[in-house]
Amino acid sequence: MSEQATPYDKPVPALTGLHGEFYAWCRDRELRFQRCTGCGRYRHVPRDICAHCSSMEWEWVRSSGRGTVFTWTDVVRALHPAFAAATPYAPVIVEMEEGVRLLSRVVDCTPDELQIGMPVEVDFQQVSDALTLPVFRRASVAR
Q1: pLDDT grade for 142, boundaries at 50, 70 and 90
Q2: 73 pLDDT above the threshold of 90
Q3: In this protein, which residues make up the domain named ChsH2 C-terminal OB-fold (predicted)?
Q4: Counting Cβ atoms within 10 Å, is residue 129 exposed (0-12), middle (13-18) or buried (19+)?
Q5: Which residue of 57, 81, 131, 137 could cross-link 37, Cys pair, CB 3.0 to 4.6 Å?
């Protein structure tokens, strides 16, 4: 697991409702997404109703943890003071094998090493006793 050496001083997500459930799975080192039991589609961010078939029935399903870099942006000047010391950094959108996209970061490469389509695998960064964030590393083996 990626360990946090210094106190985490950045904004954190609310750990209530369905978002709290998502992050509870992450705390257990499992990446899970909602899957509609009506039409079978995965969704993220967590929500009560399926955008495709309007079903209110769903389940949490474990992700493969594998995806590819869909896009990213280079942040060289932080727009929030808590991120100033972290620049430059590159928030990435990872397209997961399940079809959902997740905003995160790739922790084992610099922004100039990122590539569209680069295979990545989930890892977890514990930032407090209550919060563990999903992050990504370059995939260790070709798929």
Answers
A1: low
A2: yes
A3: 60-125
A4: exposed
A5: 57
Number of domains in the chain: 1
User: 65: how many CB neighbours lie within 10 A of its CB?
Assistant: 19
Q: Which residues in 27-128 belong to E strands, given as ranges?
A: 32-36, 42-43, 58-62, 66-72, 92-96, 101-104, 119-126
Q: Does 143 map to a domain?
A: no
Q: In what order do the strands lie in the sheet with 32-36?
A: 42-43, 32-36, 58-62
The residue range of the domain holding 24 is 12-138
Q: How would DSSP label each residue in 9-23?
A: -S-----SHHHHHHH
Q: What are phi and psi of 80, to 5 degrees?
A: -130, 135
Contact 123, 137 (CB under 8 A): yes
Share the mean pLDDT of the chain. Answer: 93
Mean pLDDT confidence for 89-105: 97
Question: How does pLDDT run across 131-140, given as a tens digit for each residue?
Answer: 999 999 999 8
| Rounded-to-integer distance, Cα 125 and Cα 97, Å | 21
